[in-house]
Amino acid sequence: MATNSNSRFAKFFLVGILLFSRQISFGQLLTGNEVHVFVSDSSKLFRQDVIAAELPRNDESLTPMLKTLKGRKTLMSFLKKTNTPNGIQYNKSSARFYYKLATTFARLRMYPLAMKCFLKTMQISSSRHGKHERLMAEPDSVQLDTSMLAFNGRDDSVVNSRPNVFENGVGDSVSKPIATNRIVETFKDGKKAAGYAILVHVKQPVPGKRKIFSGTNVGHTFITLIKYNTDSSYVSLSFGFYPRKQNLLSGTPLEPSTPSVFKNDSEHQWDEVLGKFISRRRFEKILALSDKYSVMQYHLSKNNCTDFGISAAKIAGIEILETSGSWPLGSGNNPAVAGQSILQGKYKDADQDALNGLFVESTIAAPENH
Fold first, then answer.
1. Do 67 and 162 touch, CB atoms closer than 8 A?
2. ∠ CA(13), CA(15), CA(20), 5° rounding?
3. Are strands 260-264 and 257-258 parallel, antiparallel or unpaired?
4. How many Å apart are CA 319 and CA 274, to the nearest integer?
């Protein structure tokens, strides 16, 4: 009886502290909204699910917290505090919170931040299963030291330097050509790497449908590569394989073969994305693949943007199970079918039995089967 009384007293005492410090409101208590708090070494209370509830599932209507400089600073301050050993509450709610943040940053095309948040979900999963904090990216890799990918002041700068993205949402701009040597040189920054990641993006001609073309729109597949450094900096580049147009028919069913070009797709829209942390060896193989593709002809049926994307994905250990379809005068891998496969869960991480190692997101609310 005494133990139960002490337990009830402790609960009421904690509630009193929370109400007094305005960590939660009477309204939250009365409505039964889920509120998780945890205490760090400095005995500060963090409102994990309160913040999570404010983040949008879709970035069509960004919340006031993300629209204001004060709100963004609050969020980044919270994330930096979770770097401490006691800064993560290891439960499913925590994982949902960080995954929601990952999808939000991915939709805003802040891919390095998105993968950092995704890494938090992997840490939580690892901790719940009693594993060490150092994670394996995949079998052929060195160990990924998650402490090197902690949130820091550089992330603040990235977030605060792009207020228009939070306030007005993201748009779409024309992708410009980029030389292959520029792609490779981007990641030769002279800094020691702490980790590597890849994201494979698919923009369907008609979002959520297996329609291979819509007028002249055939969609696009591209990738993002990220190198995280031990000094907390990172470099990132999104790029894809394109036909170098010689005339209006270049890269069409009537003239499927044409010279190729890589383009910077950092501001390109997408409907589906798969992301994963990879080893240095695989990262360098993907760069070598890019170099190989730079001297290859583009072919609508045999060597297109989706062929490049799924080749890079395969090196990373990501498999999209259905990618091919047909169209008048041709057939082959294409964004419509590849994107639909991702929507329908037809993909797998070749390095794991489960899908915990893959970051998966779609901007489409309800996929269709046709």
1. no
2. 95
3. unpaired
4. 10
The domain segmentation of the chain, as residue ranges, is: 16-163, 172-370
pTM, 2 dp:
0.79
CB burial of 177-188 (b: ≥16 within 10 Å; e: otherwise) equals ebebeebbebbe
Q: What percent of the chain has pLDDT over 70?
A: 69
Q: List, for residues 236-267, the tens digit of each pLDDT value.
A: 999 999 999 889 888 899 999 999 999 999 99
- Residue 331 contacts residue 301 (beta carbons within 8 Å): yes
Q: Are 178 and 264 in contact (CB under 8 A)?
A: yes
Angle 128-131-133 from CA coordinates, rounded to 5°: 100
Half-sphere exposure of 303 (CA within 13 A, CB side): 16
Query: In angstroms, rounded to a whole number, what is the distance separating the alpha carbons of residues 239 and 263?
Result: 5
Residue 80 CA to residue 212 CA, distance in Å, equals 44
Interatomic CA distance for residues 323 and 332, integer angstroms: 8
Please say whether the dihedral angle defined by the alpha carbons of residues 177, 180, 181 and 185, taken in this order, is positive or negative: positive
Q: How far apart are the C-alpha atoms of 136 and 275, rounded to whole Å?
A: 15
pLDDT digits (tens, 9 = 90+) for 278-321: 999 999 999 999 999 999 999 999 999 999 999 999 999 999 99
Please give the structure tokens belonging to residue 86. 């006691």
The answer to whether 287 touches 183, Cβ cutoff 8 Å, is yes
First and final CA of the chain: distance in angstroms?
62
Q: Is the pLDDT of residue 138 over 60?
A: no
Tell me which DSSP letter residue 266 carries: T
b/e 22-60 (16+ beta carbons within 10 angstroms → b) = ebbeeebeeeeeebebbebeeeeebbbbbbbeebeeebe
Amino acid letter, 142: V
